[in-house]
Amino acid sequence: MQKYLLILLFIIFAFAVNAQVESSVCIGSIRNYKVHGSAGSAYNWHINGGLIISNPIKDSIIVRWGNIGGIYQIYVIETSIYGCQGDTIFSTVMVNPLLSIKITGPDEICAGDSITLTAINSSSYYWSTGSGNQSITVQPLSTIQYSMIGSTVCGLDTVYKQITVHQKPQADFSYSPELPMAGANIHFRYTGSPATSFSWFIDFNLEFSNQSNPVYSLQAGANPHITLYVTSPFGCTDSISKVIIFGGTTDIWMPNSFTPNGDGLNDVFKGVSATEVKDFNIYIYNRLGQQVFESSNIQIGWDGKFLGNDSPQGVYTFVMTYQTGINQQSIIRKTGQINLYR
C-alpha cells in the first residue's frame, strides 16, 4: 500500500522534529531532512546541489549544501519491510548565495570635503553614525573608520569602511625684489607645504607659469594680483593671492641672477629703467677678470654666451655707467654681481 510522505526540514540541533517545512537555506549550510514512514522501512534519498553526510537509507538525513546558489530538488523513495516501494516524494529548496554586504565610496579624501557612503546587498541599515538610511553623507576631519550592521536572508553582518583623510596643503610664496620696477624680472619662490603641481596666475585669469619658482616680468599698469594654486601629492588643493607693488625710486634695476636655458623665462641679463637712459654702457666679467660681454644699449642684454659658447654656471661681475632723466649732469657708475644658473 502506497502512502504519501511529508518531508519535514529543520535546522540541525533544533528541538522540535516536526518543524515547519523549510524552503530556503544559505550556501554551505548544514540541514536535517526527515520523512514519516513505516517501521522497518528503508529509504533511498537523492539530493541535487548538496552532499548527504549521514546514512542515506534512514528516514532522516543530514545535508551540507554546496557553494552555488539556486533552486534544488530533494526526493526520497520508501521501501517497506515487505519490499513494497512507495511513491517518490519531492521537495524543493532555495539555496541562497552569500551576498556580502559592502560599503561603496572613496577610501581617501581631503580634509573639509564631504563624501557619500552607500551600503549594498543589505535589507536593513544601522550605521555607527546612528543613521538608518542606506546612504550617509559625512565630512570627516581626520582618518576614521565607519561601520554598518546590515541583514540578508542569511543573517546579520557587520562591515567596515576606513576613510583616510589627507590634510590640505598650505600655499604661500615670496618674491624679490620687494618693490620691483615695471618690466623687471620678478623671482617668485614657493614657500608653502610640499606640493606636486603649481599654477601661477596674473589677475586670476592669465596663467604665466607652472613651475615652483618662476621668474616673470610684470608690465606697467595697475598693481597686479598674483594668485598661486597648488596641489599636494594626495590631490588636495589650496591657493593664495598677493598684490605686487611696483617701486619707483630706482633709476635702473638689475636682476641678481638669470637662467639662459632657452625656456623663454629670464634668459637674458639686462637692466630695466623707468626713466630715460643716456650714455649707457655695461661690461660683464668672469671670475678670472676676463670680459665676456659689453653693451651700449640698455635693451640689449647678455644671453650667457662668450665667443659663441655657453658660459659656465657661476658668479659674474658687472660694471655699468649711464645718465638718466633724473640726474642729467653726472655719470652714474654701478657695480654688482650676478648669478648665472643652468
Commentary on this structure:
- By secondary structure, this protein is mostly beta strands.
- Helices cover 0% and strands 50% of the residues.
- The protein has no helices and 31 strands.
- The protein has strands at 7-11, 24-26, 30-35, 42-47, 50-52, 60-65, 70-79, 85-96, 102-104, 108-110, 115-120, 125-127, 135-138, 144-152, 155-166, 173-176, 185-190, 197-202, 206-209, 215-217, 225-231, 237-243, 252-253, 257-258, 272-273, 277-285, 291-295, 305-306, 309-310, 314-324, 332-340.
- The strands form 9 sheets. Strands 24-31-30-26-27 form a 5-stranded mixed sheet, with no helix packed on it.
- A hairpin with an 8-residue loop joins strand 16 and strand 17 (185-190).
- It is rod-shaped.
Write the layout of secondary structure elements.
Blueprint: E1 7-11, E2 24-26, E3 30-35, E4 42-47, E5 50-52, E6 60-65, E7 70-79, E8 85-96, E9 102-104, E10 108-110, E11 115-120, E12 125-127, E13 135-138, E14 144-152, E15 155-166, E16 173-176, E17 185-190, E18 197-202, E19 206-209, E20 215-217, E21 225-231, E22 237-243, E23 252-253, E24 257-258, E25 272-273, E26 277-285, E27 291-295, E28 305-306, E29 309-310, E30 314-324, E31 332-340
Parallel strand pairs: 2-8, 10-15, 24-31
Antiparallel strand pairs: 1-3, 3-6, 4-7, 5-6, 7-8, 9-11, 11-13, 12-14, 14-15, 16-17, 17-20, 18-19, 18-21, 21-22, 23-25, 26-27, 26-30, 28-29, 30-31
